[in-house]
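Q: I'm writing up a methods section and want to include an example of the input and output format. Could you take the sequence below and give the corresponding predicted structure tokens, formatted cleanly so I can copy it straight into the document?
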Amino acid sequence: MTWPHLVWKALHERWPSLDIDYINAGVPGYSTRALLPALEKRVARFRPDIIVIYEAPNDLRANTYELARDQGVVASRPQVDDFDWFTRHSLLALLVRKNLEIMRLQSLATNGSGKVSLDTARLDAEFRKDYTNLVAASAKVAKVVVTATFAPRLRAEQSLEERKEAAVTDLYYTPYMAIDGLITTYTHYNQVIREVAEAQHTLLVGHEKSIPADDKHYTDSVHYTDAGSVSMAQRIIEALISSAEVQAVVENKTAQSEHAIFHQLSDTKPSANRSGGKSS
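A: Here is the clean output for your methods example:
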């Protein structure tokens, strides 16, 4: 039920004569900066026809941490899931401590004290540089590069209580960020994705708010339930199937496949007269 698999399944049903495969090259915690060497070392050798890029939260965490550190808001990166000896050796203790910490962070979510002062120009520039580098490198590998805007559960139109619930893991991993700051940064990053898509001529997938921002579709601030994966997959499927660039790839692959089949049949067809006599 991961959305890459659901996209693969839909494309296979759409073009059943093609041999279609996929690689889910996402790695937990990787930002676009970390994905660049992963693309070059792990993905490029498979010569994919289409690359789909769906990134933002790990960039947000890395870039805002550097900003908070430079502003003196934090001295070091927050250490999560490593409270003390007891919580390192007891899953129950870890879960209790983690949930208490989340409740504490939610209670402070609207308090500007101890929070980073947003520098959107700096955050946008850092994300734009890394995202552009990844898109440009992907374009050298694949015929079609797809860039999808990010769909966080946290939305500007939500009530305060809905925001606190939606920001549960964002606050846990970036406790120096206020909820309004998270919403602003996600909004800016999606605008950067749109602008990079236009500049690099990628296939842009928008409509990020088509995924309902509730616990039926999200397990936390950014990860999907099965229902969320279905909604996310639908965004990608609609964009791919309606794309002229993807259609061109399909037609080219179909022609290659038919040529290969014809060539194979030609090579295996008995010769007319191998022994010098007439063929029967």
